């Protein structure tokens, strides 16, 4: 053993990926919730609990979707959330009166936003992330993607594109009519309703996909026997028997995942 090898602590030596994943999961789920709300949003609790109950996943952050009014510095070209004043935040449909009251506190460039559901999940293996990615795409979250870190950390982000962002004031002065604000809120509330439907669809599809995965893993011998039997049936393609049900129920083609525009693989910095 060289002097360099002796100087490397055992904790820094190569760790079994499964052990490392379990350790990361325990550390993440054991931390306090530092979000503004301080807890998981009600509309996504079932999804978060379902994922965290599985050995191959754990959630790192989530938001069920929200309508917010933020007031930023008029001298900037873009409102940054960390440097702005939050005038109004709601995870429910919003009414005009609440926005008008909040706008009275605006002194800069107030922006009305709708931000759809977002979920970040760390996955044990790439194939686990691909399963969730397929479910997310089928549920309407077309902007979802996978990121693989340089050290193998695999993250899935569930995202959609039906957001909304409209400036309402400039230097504290209201630049639009109340009628237009009413129109914007109707649009934002419609997006919120669609967002909720997609969350429900995601939960149902996720339940089904995980149940199918569990059944597949628990009955490998039965699957193998059925595949062998199917190859002896005259005029039968051996690949159609086992795959037709899965493809039909999920309405997706797993072999096309790599070509999906939502799928991306990037590298984190060395220190990640």
Automatic annotation (TrEMBL):
Residues 214-272 are annotated as: Disordered. It catalyses: 4-demethyl-7-[(3S)-3-amino-3-carboxypropyl]wyosine(37) in tRNA(Phe) + S-adenosyl-L-methionine = 7-[(3S)-3-amino-3-carboxypropyl]wyosine(37) in tRNA(Phe) + S-adenosyl-L-homocysteine + H(+). Residues 25-207 form the tRNA wybutosine-synthesizing protein domain. Pathway: tRNA modification; wybutosine-tRNA(Phe) biosynthesis. It comes from the Eukaryota. It is an enzyme of class 2 (transferase). Its EC number is 2.1.1.282. Keywords: Methyltransferase, S-adenosyl-L-methionine, Transferase, tRNA processing. Pfam families: TYW3 (PF02676). SUPFAM superfamilies: SSo0622-like. PANTHER family: TRNA WYBUTOSINE-SYNTHESIZING PROTEIN 3. Probable S-adenosyl-L-methionine-dependent methyltransferase that acts as a component of the wybutosine biosynthesis pathway. Wybutosine is a hyper modified guanosine with a tricyclic base found at the 3'-position adjacent to the anticodon of eukaryotic phenylalanine tRNA. Belongs to the TYW3 family. This is tRNA wybutosine-synthesizing protein 3 homolog. The gene is TYW3.
């Amino acid at each position: 053993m060289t002097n360099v090898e002796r100087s490397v602590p055992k904790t820094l030596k190569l760790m079994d990926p499964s052990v490392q994943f379990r350790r990361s999961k325990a550390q993440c789920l054991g931390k306090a919730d530092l979000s503004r709300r301080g807890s998981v949003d009600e509309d996504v609790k079932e999804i978060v609990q379902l994922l965290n109950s599985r050995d191959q996943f754990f959630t790192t952050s989530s938001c069920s979707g929200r309508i917010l009014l933020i007031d930023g510095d008029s001298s900037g070209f873009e409102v940054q959330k960390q440097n702005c004043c939050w005038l109004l935040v709601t995870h429910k449909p919003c009414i005009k009166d609440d926005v008008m009251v909040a706008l009275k506190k605006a002194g800069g460039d107030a922006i009305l936003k709708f931000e759809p559901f977002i979920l970040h999940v760390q996955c044990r293996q790439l194939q686990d992330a691909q399963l969730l990615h397929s479910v997310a795409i089928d549920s309407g979250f077309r902007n979802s993607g996978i990121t693989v870190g340089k050290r193998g950390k695999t993250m899935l982000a569930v995202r959609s594109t039906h957001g909304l962002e409209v400036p309402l004031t400039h230097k504290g002065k209201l630049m639009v009519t109340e009628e237009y604000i009413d129109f914007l809120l109707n649009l934002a509330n419609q997006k919120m309703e669609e967002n909720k439907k997609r969350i429900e669809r995601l939960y149902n599809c996720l339940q089904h996909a995980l149940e199918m995965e569990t059944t597949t893993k628990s009955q490998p011998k039965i699957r193998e026997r059925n595949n062998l039997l199917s190859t002896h049936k005259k005029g039968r393609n051996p690949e159609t028997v086992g795959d037709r049900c899965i493809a039909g129920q999920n309405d997706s083609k797993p072999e096309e995942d790599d070509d999906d525009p939502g799928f991306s693989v990037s590298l984190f910095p060395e220190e990640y």
